């Protein structure tokens, strides 16, 4: 991360005298139809002296607007000039090295659907015809480790040992998008900008959005409708600006459009604008209701005029619907950093739900795979010992020692860790406590923000406490008379706990009473939780499941035949 930060600082102040190829030509080998977002920065039209002058001018204008008297203005402006000179001394050597000695004049960040939940966005630097000496210079300049970059087919991509293989496989497998793709149409709309930011919605994301994956069930219908509509009807969004726009505060030469959103047709653009307008009404009215409730006993109220003003102000930010596009414009044709950030944020907000849906779908799939691995480990344990592990082992006095999760470690490729643990001592003994912070892959759901282990057995059913010291077996498959495919073995809990703790598994009553989005039992996935069955399969249980059916699934020999699939 420190390497990327340094690189960004260096490139933010560099310049070049050569003409650059369009972004789509330079980075086309890495832009596929699964590309969700693409950011291109071209620094060929600005130099350090321009930056210094613009920053000095902007600073002085700010001082004037703040009402500084002449003496204070002169002293502060002089101090600003001194600080900018110090920054020049630091930055200019980096600039000279990067632009002249190494020859880097543009950079791109790519977010591809294939890298969502593993690597995330990748930074790409054109590296054709560069030498080993130039690479060594870059390493030295950025103080980067030897594995700090991955060189692939004419590009240099910052990475590390854990991401190298995945980035390499992705880059080699990319099938460049055709020239008529949505992402190239978006790039053409900001073709002359120094900084181009575009986003699209690949078909795979649209399919996920149609199912509402990743959207909270308690989300207001107006918001849900807007998100679902935008995910299906928006083709792309784009924004672009020149450095002179944000450094000098000058009027844009060609357009006052800050953000463009392209929809399928003109009627979609009109409808989307109307939905945004309704959302303003909903948001302000909701805020008004909440404020009135909070202040009703305080003898204070917010005048209705304040809410009318808020609605009016927010309406000024609404886009213009022109044909099949929504255009967010700068007031008065002026560009400011604040407006840039705000309008880019609007565009991202319209596309983000589909991205979030894809990420949650991937997390839910990863969670299900982890439960599958635990279930397979339980079956391998059963094959070895003739029964599943007990809920926990006990000492001579019947006190809990170790959880079933510890006992299956050898069957989850954790034999070394298992052999280091002293099984004849309690899990929280001074010696065994050193392993509490050891993260065992497979015990942590990627959707759960609380950290810790989140996979519990059903205490008192499939998992029974050991009956004697040294006993490491519990319930066998023959005791599950309800059928292994009808009996729960593993469920998710919302609050993570230490994976070694033998006292955290939920009971059947807790499963039935607490299974909800806000109860103790249940995952952080939208609409329900993943569960592992005694036959080794993994299912997804909806929060709306009948509690009698859920109880029947939790018993191993209740005589029920639940059918909720």
Summed up:
The protein is 42% helix and 17% strand. It has helices at residues 2-11, 23-26, 48-65, 70-102, 132-142, 161-173, 182-188, 203-210, 221-233, 243-247, 266-295, 304-316, 337-385, 404-407, 415-420, 508-514, 547-554, and strands at 35-42, 106-112, 122-126, 149-152, 155-158, 195-200, 234-241, 257-263, 320-322, 325-329, 392-394, 400-403, 453-459, 488-497, 506-507, 528-533, 538-542. The longest helix has 49 residues, at 337-385.
What does this entry look like structurally?
The protein is α+β, with helices and mostly antiparallel strands. It has three domains: 1-177, no CATH class; 189-363, no CATH class; 386-554, no CATH class. Helices cover 42% and strands 17% of the residues. It contains 17 helices and 17 strands. The chain has helices at residues 2-11, 23-26, 48-65, 70-102, 132-142, 161-173, 182-188, 203-210, 221-233, 243-247, 266-295, 304-316, 337-385, 404-407, 415-420, 508-514, 547-554; strands at residues 35-42, 106-112, 122-126, 149-152, 155-158, 195-200, 234-241, 257-263, 320-322, 325-329, 392-394, 400-403, 453-459, 488-497, 506-507, 528-533, 538-542. A ten-stranded antiparallel beta sheet has the order 4-5-3-2-1-6-7-8-10-9, with helices on both faces. Strands 15-13-14-16-17 form a five-stranded mixed beta sheet. Helix 8 runs antiparallel to helix 9 and helix 11 packs antiparallel against helix 12 (304-316). The protein is globular and about 85 Å long. The two termini are 46 Å apart. 34% of the residues are buried. The model is unreliable at 1-21, 249-254 and 332-338 (pLDDT under 50).
């Amino acid at each position: 991360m420190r390497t990327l930060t340094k690189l960004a600082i260096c490139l933010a102040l560099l310049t070049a005298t050569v003409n650059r190829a369009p972004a789509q030509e330079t980075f086309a080998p890495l832009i596929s139809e699964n590309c969700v977002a693409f950011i291109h920065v071209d620094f060929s039209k600005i130099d350090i002296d321009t930056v210094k002058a613009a920053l000095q001018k902007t600073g002085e204008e700010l001082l004037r607007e703040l009402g500084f008297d002449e003496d204070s203005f002169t002293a502060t402006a002089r101090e600003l000039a001194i600080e900018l000179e110090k920054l020049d001394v630091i930055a200019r050597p980096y600039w000279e090295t990067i632009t002249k000695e190494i020859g880097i004049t543009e950079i791109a960040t790519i977010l591809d659907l294939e890298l969502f939940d593993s690597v995330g966005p990748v930074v790409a630097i054109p590296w054709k015809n560069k030498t080993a000496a130039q690479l060594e210079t870059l390493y030295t300049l950025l103080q980067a480790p030897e594995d700090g970059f991955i060189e692939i087919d004419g590009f240099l991509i910052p990475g590390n040992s854990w991401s190298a293989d995945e980035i390499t496989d992705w880059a080699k497998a990319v099938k460049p998008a055709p020239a008529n793709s949505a992402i190239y149409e978006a790039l053409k709309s900001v073709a002359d900008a120094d900084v181009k930011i575009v986003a699209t919605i690949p078909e795979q994301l649209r399919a996920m959005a149609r199912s509402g994956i990743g959207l909270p069930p308690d989300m207001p219908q107006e918001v849900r409708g807007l998100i679902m509509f935008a995910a299906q009807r928006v083709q792309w969004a784009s924004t672009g600006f020149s450095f002179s726009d944000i450094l000098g505060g000058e009027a844009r030469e060609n357009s006052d459009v800050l953000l463009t959103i392209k929809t399928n047709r003109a009627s979609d653009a009109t409808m989307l604008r109307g939905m945004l307008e309704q959302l303003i009404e909903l948001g302000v009215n909701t805020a008004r209701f909440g404020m009135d409730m909070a202040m009703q006993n305080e003898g204070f109220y917010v005048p209705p005029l304040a809410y009318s003003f808020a609605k009016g102000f927010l309406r000024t930010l609404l886009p213009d619907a022109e044909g099949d596009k929504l255009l967010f414009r700068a007031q008065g044709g002026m560009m400011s950093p604040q407006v840039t950030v705000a309008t880019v944020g609007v565009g991202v907000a319209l596309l983000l739900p589909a991205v979030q849906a894809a990420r949650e779908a991937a997390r839910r799939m990863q969670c299900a795979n982890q439960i599958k691995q635990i279930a397979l480990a339980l079956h391998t344990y059963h094959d070895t010992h003739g029964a599943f592990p007990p809920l926990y082992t006990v000492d001579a006095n019947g006190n809990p020692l170790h959880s079933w999760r510890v006992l299956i470690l050898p069957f989850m490729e954790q034999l070394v860790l298992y052999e280091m643990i002293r099984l004849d001592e309690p899990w929280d003994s001074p010696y065994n406590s050193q392993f509490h912070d050891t993260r065992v892959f497979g015990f942590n759901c990627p959707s759960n923000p609380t950290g810790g282990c989140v996979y519990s057995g059903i205490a008192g059913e499939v998992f029974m406490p050991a009956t004697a010291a040294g006993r490491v077996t519990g319930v066998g498959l023959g005791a599950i008379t309800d059928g292994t495919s009808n009996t729960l073995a593993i469920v998710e809990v919302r609050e993570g706990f230490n994976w070694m703790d033998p006292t955290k598994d939920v009971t059947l009553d807790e499963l039935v009473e607490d299974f909800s989005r806000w109860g103790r039992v249940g995952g952080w996935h939208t609409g329900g939780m993943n569960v592992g069955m005694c036959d080794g399969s993994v299912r997804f249980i909806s929060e709306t499941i009948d509690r009698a059916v859920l109880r029947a699934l939790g018993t191993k020999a209740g005589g029920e035949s639940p059918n909720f699939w």
